[in-house]
Structures
1.
Amino acid sequence: MGLLARWATSAWAACREAVFPPRCLECAEFLPPAPAEGLPAASAAADVLRLLGLHFCSGCLQGVIRMGHPLCPGCGVMFKGGVGEDHLCGRCLETPPPFHMARAAFVYGQSLVDVIHCFKYKGKTQLARPLGVLLFEAFERYWGRAPVDMVLPVPLHRRRLKERGFNQALLLVRRWPLRPGMPKVPVDTHVLWRARATAPQAGLGRRGRQANIAGAFALRHPERVAGRHILLVDDVITTGATAGECARLLLENGAARVDVLALARVI
């Protein structure tokens, strides 16, 4: 961007903020002026406040917790207390999930619940960019040395897609930044589809979620997944029932390995 264009952009932003001062999307508190450089690059993705501070006040972000160790190598749940080594949780020991591993960027605590609800249910799609950068940082952390062949956003049923107007999982991965020399991972939205509408998963226990989601997905082009390392992407993992159902279907149709990445996970 040339000097004149940068000046014009800065002048317009200043005028807009003077007339319409930015407010926190959650509590409506006035936000401080945005830094001149705007959204930071992917290298600064660890700084949650800088990335989301253009949309939320520091008070509404103070409870955002990054997923850390110790955690379960299978389902990715973080153990409370923060002491000890990674180890399989009781659920994965009893019934190993069909996917190879699941990971999340953050704990699904109240602050992040509010952020994701603004994104999904209030139509604040401008959050897709900063949230996508944070998700990409987790992708690099866990899959930087194990390249995947294909990214599949968990699809919505056409009825839900029409109501919401967008698939939040797709928006999170659509504009992932790339490091120099990093191969682009194809994002495919035509292979996995939601064949059956289901009742909301909220309020259901683990078994209820599994029963509710059983048979809800189908594949259009199974040959595309044969022998491939697939990464499923969703916004939130609760019990892993949805991810598990998708992974089972992909593996039954020849996928070599299925992993799962989410923005947040319930612990």
2.
Amino acid sequence: MAPPEFWLLVAFTAGVGAAGLWYGFRWWRWARLIEDTPTSQVRSAAQGLVELVGTARGMPGAPVIAPLSRRQCVWWTYEVERRTQGRKGRSSWERIRFDTSDALFHLQDATGDCIIDPEGAQVLPSQRNTWYGSTAIPEAGPPARRGLHVFGRKYRYRESRLHDGDPLYAIGWFSTERGHTSPDRDAETALLLREWKRDHSSLLKRFDTDGDGTLSLAEWERAREAAHAEVESQRRIASVQPGVHVLRKPDREHPLLLAATQQGKLATRYRIRALVGLAVFVSAAGLLGYVFIGS
């Protein structure tokens, strides 16, 4: 083997081995995280990294529609690929469009609801479809029956979805957000006064007691006291309202995992992936050893 080809083979094998090792340890750590994190209920979950099990539910308002199949769901991801002709007449698929939903949805269990923010999540969906067509945007959704629809078709469509009512396993960063999170009452009072100033006529009508068209120091002080009292009233109301629970991606070290499957099956899936990754690393290391010893 010529030196350029030799070192190209070495670099490729080393890269594949390094990727196998990295993904192997990553997936093994995720499997351990799933197995070691106890399941919590929404109502009593602690703030921080938690595991929840429930049902996927859509948010109120406009429905979430998957772009390719036009089916209603709570989360989607898709890609469109185009067939290209390479050297020696070999064809391959080139990705030309892809996107992932960032719409919020609910996880609902017997004790309450938690909003799921899917940004950055690793998702194992309940539905995956692959089908083929002749246009960059599919004219119809996936066929009812699977078959050989690839011949003569220039485009391939892939779409994955979570639907309303799907069982949902989730592990991520849990936080409860309330209406008033700022500890600075003076800042909230100043903000409310600024809003009142925008409607100058209403401000004068409320606090210009002498009718001279301006607010004196005493009248302005009464306006400030009224704004402070309204802020305190709003904070008291917010303090007795239930908070909004949100689950999102924790950080770079921990994943946000969402899956329409059971905990045990999910952990087993990541363990198998981890073993495959480590097997790739061992195979690559063995091949490198053989190449160098043989050379």
3.
Amino acid sequence: MSQQISKTVMIGKPAPELEVAHWVQGDPVNISALKGRVVLVEVFQVNCPGCFVHALPQVVHLHERYEAQGLTVIGLATAFEDFDKNTLANLERLVQTGDMIGEPLRQLGKAGLLQSGRLDYSLPFAVGMDVLSENDAVVDDAAVNTLIHGQLPDFDSWPDERKQPIYAKARAYLEAKTHRAHTFESYGLQGTPSSILIDRDGILLEVSFGYVKPLEPMIKDLLQRAIG
């Protein structure tokens, strides 16, 4: 779960700048400096198995195929949970050596997708770490309900037996949320992996969560368009 604003109000408007605490690979860059290029920001967590199995391999393919045609890919590591694992130090180790930790190490290793505990591919684009700040928000019924209704608008119509575990999970999430991830929240992301697609004019076109929508057709179309 995550606290978020509605991304639907942002689509079609200038994309917010990324808030990056540290660039672990590549030169510092941001949305406003990339006008004229199509931008794909892939948001992931170091402790996210699906990010490494599905999303990041797709993004590496897109970078390699379309970078010369005007696509800029940025990898942004964030942390909205498991704050002891989704750290800058673990991100730096991942980028520098391919070393995995936590659930990705366990799950990808079990599936035979690692070589000596390391990824068998590298990230060939700029990679930064989201800005994290201490979270001092009060966890009360109002906060829990705001979180739930942001993701489940029809929650009030659910029967009590379905509500109770969701409510308990939401409260536990908020109580364990020691930090706020700035870019993650400014884009209203639901989780990781998430893809942020921005056109040549810096306009936000797509925010998707999970491996649910092929990005390549959209990117090919955007690369063929002139700047507005």
